[in-house]
Write a structure and sequence with these properties.
Chain A is mainly alpha-helical. Chain A has 13 helices and no strands. Chain B contains five helices and no strands. The chains are: A mainly alpha, B mainly alpha. At the A-B interface, α1, α2, α3, α4 and α5 of A face α1, α2, α3, α4 and α5 of B. Chain A: Pfam families: LrgB.
Chain lengths: 225, 146
């Protein structure tokens, strides 16, 4: 019963907020933000634990598997542009990974957080399942890593477009690499609005960042912590 | 039964079947990951596998395009359960928690900005190099000024 309420309720809210976003296309109105806030607030108000909600939430989360596989489709459609810009894309992805790791490391060192929080935050730019696995490998707290991963994603989806605009980052390749490798799948949700080229470069960046990050994150910890 | 309805029904069935095919790739990916013990999600392996099959024409894109298009269209929906998980971490509302969140935000913004700018520069050089290669091939290389 609870499964059905959660699944139908979330789909209902999602449809409602998608319609609302079409009428008021403000960055803070993206359905991911509005649906999440309303769901989270409802759980808190009605005192429903997250684990109860996840009995149904898991149904939706399970669809993330085939949905990630589905990204092979835009990738295939845009294979010409990817092959053409392979050097830029690959170097951009490695740059993003290194910049992300170094900046978060320096800032958290400066703030002076305990090591477990540091290890929890380092994999923030990797897509959720990989980020959580890497977090576990290096000694972080995986569910909390998922939260940081989501924040990194939100930043890409909400503030990302402003950064691209003011940085005059206007090619499909650079947009896709920047947002895809720093903000993974949640960032892709926004890249979709730019076009299929951005989306496909972004999904390639997300995938390669996950693969490269799975090796680079533990190496970084080994070298610097 | 009117024709329009039949078409919609056919499309719905096609989408469902194609999502089934994508799911098969997902489970193959999960199988490979657990068999080889690689620390990567099965979905990413499934994505790479499907992309390879499509690229080498071992699978027709028609078999997945409607299902894939549909799933990508509603991608947001599948992230919501994970993001709602934030409510389980009230300690994020402490001073340290908020500072870490700010650091994550700043780090992500810097990564997007610097990566975007640098990638754009590398991209321009990559394109220029290719164009130069083409000009030289055509025997016009000696005419270029820069």
């Amino acid at each position: 019963m609870i499964e059905l309420i959660v699944v139908l309720g979330t789909i209902g809210l999602f449809i409602l907020f998608t319609k609302l976003y079409q009428r008021f296309p403000h960055p803070l109105m993206i359905p991911l933000v509005t649906t999440t806030i309303v769901s989270a607030v409802s759980l808190l108000v009605f005192n429903i634990p997250y684990s109860t909600y996840m009995v149904g939430g898991e149904w939706l989360q399970k669809m993330l598997g085939p949905a990630v596989v589905a990204l092979a489709y835009p990738l295939y459609n845009q294979r010409a542009i990817i092959m053409k810009y392979k050097v830029s894309i690959l170097s951009g992805i490695i740059l993003a990974m290194v910049i992300g790791l170094v900046t978060i490391f320096v800032m958290l060192k400066w703030i002076g957080v305990k090591e477990s929080w540091m290890l929890t935050a380092l994999p923030k730019s990797l897509t959720t399942p990989v980020g959580m696995q890497v977090s576990e490998t290096i000694g972080g707290i995986p569910p909390l890593t998922a939260v940081f991963v989501m924040i990194a994603g939100f930043v890409g989806a909400i503030i990302g477009p402003f950064v691209l605009k003011y940085g005059k980052i206007d090619s499909a390749v650079s947009r896709g690499v920047a947002v895809g490798s720093a903000s993974h799948g949640v960032g892709l949700v926004k890249l979709r609005e730019y076009g299929e080229q951005e989306l496909s470069v972004g999904s390639l960046s997300m995938g390669l960042t996950a693969i490269i990050g799975a090796f680079l994150c533990p190496l970084f910890v080994y070298l610097f912590l | 039964m009117n024709e329009n309805f039949t078409m919609i029904l056919m499309r719905v069935v096609r989408i469902i079947v194609q999502i089934g095919i994508l799911n098969i790739f997902y489970y193959i990916g999960v199988g490979i990951v657990s068999y080889l013990h690689i620390p990567l999600p099965g979905s990413v392996i499934g994505l790479l596998l499907l992309a390879l099959l499509l690229n080498f024409k071992l699978m027709k894109v028609e078999y997945i395009q409607d299902g894939a298009g549909f799933l990508i269209g509603v991608l947001t929906l599948f992230f919501i359960p994970a993001t709602v998980g934030i409510i389980d971490y009230p300690e994020l509302m402490s001073t340290t928690g908020l500072l870490i969140i700010l650091a994550v935000i700043a780090s992500t913004l810097i990564a997007i900005y610097v990566t975007g700018i640098l990638t754009q520069l590398i991209e321009k050089r990559e394109v220029a190099k290719k164009e130069q290669a083409v000009t030289i091939e055509e025997g016009k290389g000696e005419l270029s000024v820069d």
